[in-house]
Amino acid sequence: MSSTPSTMMDLGTKAPDFKLFDTVNNQLVSLDDFDNAKGLLVVFMCNHCPYVKHILDEFVVAARDLQQKGIGVVAISSNDVENYPDDSPVKMAAEARAHQFSFPYLYDGTQEVAKAYNAACTPDFFLFDEKDELVYRGQFDDSRPGNDKPVNGKDLREAVELLFDGKVKEDQKPSMGCNIKWKKGNAPEYFEG
Questions:
Q1: Residue ranges with strand state E in 130-170
Q2: Are the beta carbons of 30 and 17 closer than 8 angstroms?
Q3: Nearest 5°: phi and psi at 117?
Q4: Strand order in the sheet with 176-179
Q5: Which H helix or E strand runs over 95?
Q6: pLDDT per residue over 156-191, tens digit each?
Q7: pLDDT at residue 193 above 70?
Q8: Tell me, what DSSP letter sits at residue 140?
Q9: Which of 83, 98, 108, 157 has a beta carbon 3.0–4.6 Å from 78's, enabling a disulfide?
Q10: pLDDT 10s digits, 23-82
Q11: d(CA 2, CA 169)
């Protein structure tokens, strides 16, 4: 299982726009839908990645907690479904239902949204404030498959609490996971694989 770190987009970067279909209800979801939120968490993930599977149950809990605090949450899968059929929109919808996602699970078939966010791995977390400026990018917590550290979302939860205090988490560690599965000839320049 190879590990790919986040690219660590510059803090203060404006959230790139997106308009993608939610695989569960086939509704179009865009950045504008979160205009009234106190912040927005965008996470790039997929169904088959062992790093995502490792944190998924706790992430679903954390996402609900964040939503109750007024933070918008959206998950996006950008993987090449031709070569990774477990990440197809139909299977994404089944995964969302099985784990009772409280947030939209969007499919980025062109991979343009992943490129706009400089997303590199699954999971890859991007937290924006109410002005859509990036305040956190990095790991959910220190836990990885096989390292016996607790899955608790500590880093992300701390970043959100600081966001509410008008502060930015200083110690930001890259997320680590499987690389996004780029379509042949579509990998961005920042991807080294």
A1: 134-138
A2: yes
A3: -90, 0
A4: 4-5, 176-179, 121-122
A5: helix 89-98
A6: 999 999 999 999 999 999 999 999 999 988 877 776
A7: no
A8: S
A9: 108
A10: 999 999 999 999 999 999 999 999 999 999 999 999 999 999 999 999 999 999 999 999
A11: 28
Domains with residue ranges and CATH for the chain: 19-25+37-179 (3.40.30.10)
Instruction: Give residues with Cβ within 8 angstroms of 148, minimum separation 6.
Output: none
Query: How far apart, in whole angstroms, are the C-alpha atoms of residue 56 and residue 145?
Result: 12
Q: Among all chains, which residue has been given the structure tokens 């016996």?
A: 148
pLDDT of residue 54: 95
Cβ(86)–Cβ(47) under 8 Å?
A: yes
| Closest CA relative to residue 7, chosen from 193, 161, 172, 190 | 190
d(CA 178, CA 193): 11
Q: Classify each residue of 158-167 as buried b or exposed e, where b means 16 or more C-beta atoms within 10 Å of its C-beta.
A: ebbebbeeee
Backbone angle region of 175, left / alpha / beta, with phi > 0 → left and psi within -120 to 50 → alpha: beta
